[in-house]
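Late entry, evening session. Most of the bench is empty. Finally got around to the prediction I had been postponing all week. Sequence below, unchanged from the version circulated by S.P.
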Amino acid sequence: MKYKYLDDISSPADIKRLRAEEIPELCEELRCFLVETVGEHGGHLASNLGAVELSVALHRIFDSPKDKIIFDVGHQAYVHKIITGRRERFSDLRVPGGLSGFTKSDESEHDPFGAGHSSTSLSAALGFAEANRLEGSDAYTVAVIGDGAYTGGMIHEALNNCHPDLRLIIVLNENGMSISQNRGAFASYFAKARMSEGYMNFKRGTKSFLSHVPLIGKPLGRFLRFMKERIKGAVYDESYFESLGLYYRGPIDGNDYKLTERVLRDAKKLKKCVVVHLKTQKGRGYSPAEERPDGFHSVYNGKKTVDSFHSVFAEELTRLAKEDEKITAVTAAMGIGTGLDVFGASYPERYFDVGIAEEHALTFSAGLAASGYKPFVAIYSTFLQRAYDSILHDVALQNLPVKMMIDRAGLAVSDGATHHGIFDVAFLSHIPSISIYAPVTYESLRKAVREAAFADSPVAVRYANSQEPKNIEGRFVRDVDDPFISLDFDEKAPPRYLYITYGNIVERVLGASDILAEEGIESGVVLLERLKPYEPVKERLKSVLSAAERVVFVEEGIKNGGAAMIFGELVRDTVKDYRIAAIDDNFAAPQEKCDLYGFVGLSPEKIAEKMK
C-alpha cells in the first residue's frame, strides 16, 4: 500500500520536516499500517493504535538517540520503531531473529533500554537522567509508562528517588485503568492554562514578589500555597506527584495531537522533572479494537484455539471451588491470560487481581495460606522470576501450601527472550519443600490441580501456552504406581537408548525417536509429569535406567541447575553414558531469522543427533 507521508519517513528527522497541519494525516497512515501489518503477522495492536499521536510528538520534540525515549514494556513502541527506520522489518515482526515486539537495545540506537517486563522504565530512565546530570549533559530522558505498568511497585520506588533537578519527562499514558478521575471540561481548560509559559512565569514571579514583602509576605505566601493545594486536591489527583517535588501536567487528551505536542514542548522548556499525564484511547481509529481493546491487545496470526492448558486449569479450579470454599485465586493483572477471569466470574469474592505486582501476589498468597485458605496463584513463568524472594522467604521457608500455577512454560517463540519460560524449573528445584509438576495432557493437569488443592506444602504446576499434544495418550502407557510417569516402550524389555523428558518438548523428542527408528536405531521415551521430589523418580526408574546403554535427558529449559543436571547427579552411578539436551548458557535470542528450536539444539533432528 502506498502512503503519502509514511513512505518518506525513515528517521526522526523526517517527521520534524513535516508541517503541523500534515501530522494528522500521517497519524492516520500509521494506524492503517499498524492494522494491516499486525493483522497479518500478529502483535500488540490496541495499545499501539492509542499511542500514535504521542509517539509522533515525542520524536518531533526530542532528539533521539541523544535524548533517550524509554517505553515501559515496549508493546506500545511500534510507531516509535516505524519512525526510527524499522518499518521494512515489520514483515518479520515477532519471529525468532526478526523484529522484536518490544524495545531491544541491540536492535537500534533509538532503543536505549530493552524491555519486556512491566514497570521497569522509570528506574532505567532515572539512571540515564542521573548519568546525564553527572556528565553535565543537556540531554533529556523520557519514560513512557502505561497506567497498567503504574500498578507495579518499581514505578513508585523510582518515583521516590526522582527530584526536580533532572531533565526527566515522565509520560503517564492512561489508556484503560482510571488512575485519577476525568474532571471534565474545566479540568481540561485548567490543564491547558497552567501549562502555558505565561502561567509558569506568573507563578515564579508571584513567589519572588511575596518573598520580598516585609512582615506579611512569607505568611501570605504560605497561605496561598495552602489554598492552592486545597483547590488542586479538589480538582486534581496531582498532589501525589507534587508532594514528591515533581511538576505535574494533566490530564490531557493524548489523542489530540496539537495539545499533546504543546504540553510536551512546554514540559521540555522547564528543564526539570515533569510528569505529563495523558489519556489515550486503546484501539483508536480501528472500530473493532475500540469496542474490544482487551480482545485486540495481542493479535495472533494463527488459528486461535478453543481450549488450552490455562482454560482447562481455570475450569478445574472453578469446579473444585464449588466444593471447597477455602479455594481462592490470585493473578497479577493477567486474569484473561491465565484463564482466571472465569473463576472470578463465578466466585468474585475469592478472586484477587493484585495488579502488576508478582512479589506481592506471592506474599499475599502466603498470608492467605497461613490463614487456612488454599490460594492458587497463576503467573506466567517469565514473570514468576520477579517473585523469587517471596517464594523462597515467605512461602517455602514457612512451608506454606501456596499453589503456583506457572503458565507459558517453555520457549516463547513470538515474544522472545524476555518472555521465555525456561528458568523456573532451575530456580524452583533448589528451593526446599516445593513439589514441581509438569503435566502435558489435560487429564494430568486436572490431577495435578486436585493434588495441589490438598497439599500441605508449596506446589508448582507448570504448563505451556498451547493445546495438549494429540499423540501422547495413544503412544504412552502410564505407570500404575505413579501416574505422572509414562513410557512408550515395554518396561520388561527396555531399549538400549533412552530419552527422558518433561513438558511439551516431548513432541519433538518423539520426532527424534522416529528419526532414529528410520535409521534402524531403537529408542524409548520416558515422560515425566512430576519432577520434584527427584529421588522417588530415580528410584522408580532404576531398573529401566540400569538396562540402558545411553540416556539423553531433553529439557526445554536452561541447562545449568535444571532438572536434567539434577537428575544426572542422582543417576551417575547407574547410567554411564548420560547426556543433556537443553538450552546451554544462553537466552535463546537469535540475531537472524531461524527455527528457534533448532537454534537452541532442541529440534527433532538435533535431539536425534544428541543420542547418536
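Two things to note before I forget:
Residues 309-462 form a domain with the Rossmann fold fold (CATH 3.40.50.970).
The longest strand covers residues 550-558.
Will write this up properly tomorrow.
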